[in-house]
Amino acid sequence: MKINSAIDYCSCILVKGLSFILRPLPTAAVLFTGRRIGDLLYRLDARHRAIAHANIKFALGNGSAPCRIKNITREFYRGFGQSIIEIFIIPRVDRKFIDKYIKIEGYEYVEKAFKSGKGVIFAGVHEGSWELYNIICKSVMGFGFSLFVRQQDKFPRLNCLLNSFRKNQGCQIIEKQNQTRQLIELLEAGKPIGMSVDQGGKDGVSVEFFGRDASMASGAVRLALKYDAIILPAFYTRAKGLKGKIIVKPPLEISKTGDSQEDLRNALQKLVLVFEGLIREYPQEYLWTYKIWKYSKSRKILVLSDGKAGHLRQAQALAQIVSRYFREKGIAAGHEVAEVNFKNRFFRAGLSLCGCLTGRYSCQGCLRCLKVSLRQDSYRLLSFAKVDIVISCGSSLAAVNYLFCRENLSKSFVLMKPSFLSLRKFDLLVMPMHDNPPRRKNVVATQGALNLIDKDYLNLQAARLSIRQGIERDRFNFYIGILIGGEAKDFRLDTEKVSQVINQAKLAAERNNAGILVTSSRRTLKETEILLKREFSNYPRCKLLIIANEKNIPGAVAGILGLSKFAIVSPESISMISEAASSGREVIVFEDRVGVKHKRFLGRLSRDKHIYLCGSDKIGDLIAGRKEGPCGLLPLNDAEVIKKALGRIL
């Protein structure tokens, strides 16, 4: 409290001092000072500059080059600096000043409104030189003007000083604490008031603003509906120097259907669209430095793809978790996939280096490094994208994710370690425990690889696979799914081991009247594929054999898991084991020589009862012991851990 009091006291002295210094100066000198203050703020106020840039790009960026967005942002700051400095020349504003500098467009609507005998509400948005605009309205229009302002409780001295400037020019101040009674009295007396319709906050009404729902203040429309007042949309724009123009639009047409909430929403939407058109024409005038769509009931998620199916599935799984989190909050969320193609490996490495060297706000409005490094179709897709969250998997896309999110102020979510980029650059990192992730607020450690597997997805893919392949679910007591991987880093699947697994699976199928469903992966070795075809092509209990390198079926793994009671999985594929462990099936991973990281992964899942880890010669006995009763394993569920992290981040 003492700090605020000191700031209030110093600010009040500063404003009085500047007012004393600037009043005698020529108008041109005062305006020059204001624009230079704007340039200084543009340089120093990095956070709000970034918000303004992202907002302008979202609202006006279709087809606009990054440099144009940057120029609009700079001009906005210059106008903002001029608005600040214009506070000090309020005492100069008289009829002579107005005749010299101000032009009014649409004054006939004002005259007609006052002749009607009804209350008049001048509706505006946060734009232009708000202080001069209010004083000009009073002086030019020739009537008493009541200004609705928010009292600055933290800075009472400064609040009183600014209000004194306004009152000296004839404005009546309506502060928020007494707003309702005063506003009603004025309207019933047929007097005009001024109110803003943007920045609705938590209590605002959601309407479309530049193609997306935003919270808008509904007070002006509510009063107009209840007290039959006339709403005149008004907008102030600068021409050159102090020369400006007040644009008054025709009265808002308000329909009354008997449904008060729908009437309110429709009228507010019409009013907002009027201002949207004016802002498009004069974008440098609007106050872009607040989070316009913060209370939007929709979110857009962009998933970046490096062309690797496993990475894409993990990224889509995270997008699915995020979408569910938003739905639980009453917010609609959907995701799109954008494939990212680099020109070559050299440019991919160079972009990672750029990502390391750039600061939080330094590259906004440029995108040159992305344009140079990516193929034209990928760059164009990203430059036009308007999203809230960007998700990528794999180190090659980490720099693209970071740089794109800095441009748009999107949330940046990354799966796996992001190469040599600092972890602090990202809002959320999802890393498996076997990679030994560091303990940080933005890092979430998962037991396995994220995947799309859940009950609904399994049922859907199982139904599709059954219909497509003609698999009869009730022909056998149960099905045994076999998921065979192949070659990986420091691992080569032993064909003899696979042969032993096949024999054990066949033995279990014969003893228990079970069917068999088999799929290989794209990494499966040729000799293993030959073995699978020799053993299962004509085997009557095998109702599905997929050789992925010859003919893959989308969603086959999930379909097999959905149809099977048991799933036998080779030990080298973390993603495939994670999918199986998430399915709620009896998952058997046969042992083989794997690296240290895989040993940690398999050991943890086995200890936590997500999988059975056994020798390839013990599979038949394990199936015989688990064929009756419910599943003895716990489904792997990393989604809950991630949801908790989302609560902190979003």
Defining key terms:
single chain, 650 residues, alpha/beta, Glycerol-3-phosphate (1)-acyltransferase, Rossmann fold, 3 domains, 7-stranded mixed sheet, 6-stranded parallel sheet, 24 helices, 21 strands, 18% strand, elongated
Structure description:
The protein is α/β, with parallel strands linked by helices and 650 residues long. It folds into three domains: 284 residues, Glycerol-3-phosphate (1)-acyltransferase (3-Layer(aba) Sandwich), CATH 3.40.1130; 129 residues, Rossmann fold; 172 residues, Glycogen Phosphorylase B (Rossmann fold). Helices cover 47% and strands 18% of the residues. It contains 24 helices and 21 strands. The strands form four sheets. It has a seven-stranded mixed sheet, with helices on both faces. It has a six-stranded parallel sheet with strand order 11-10-12-13-14-15, with helices on both faces. Strand 12, helix 16 and strand 13 form a beta-alpha-beta unit. Helix 17 crosses helix 20. The radius of gyration is 33 Å and the shape is elongated. The mean pLDDT is 87.
With helices defined by DSSP (H or I, 4 residues minimum), what is the helix count?
A: 24
CATH class descriptor name of the largest domain: Alpha Beta
Q: How big is the Rg?
A: 33 Å
Distance between the termini: 30 Å
Q: How would you write the strand order of the largest sheet?
A: 1-9-8-2-5-3-4
- CATH topology name of the largest domain, in short, is Glycerol-3-phosphate (1)-acyltransferase
In this structure, how is the largest beta sheet organized? Answer: 7 strands, mixed
CATH architecture of the largest domain: 3-Layer(aba) Sandwich
Q: Approximately what portion of the residues adopt beta-strand conformation?
A: 15-25%
Shape: elongated
The total tally of domains equals: 3
What's the helical proportion of residues? 40-55%
Query: Any low-confidence stretches, pLDDT <50, length ≥5?
Result: none
Mean pLDDT: 87
Number of strands: 21
Backbone structural class: alpha/beta
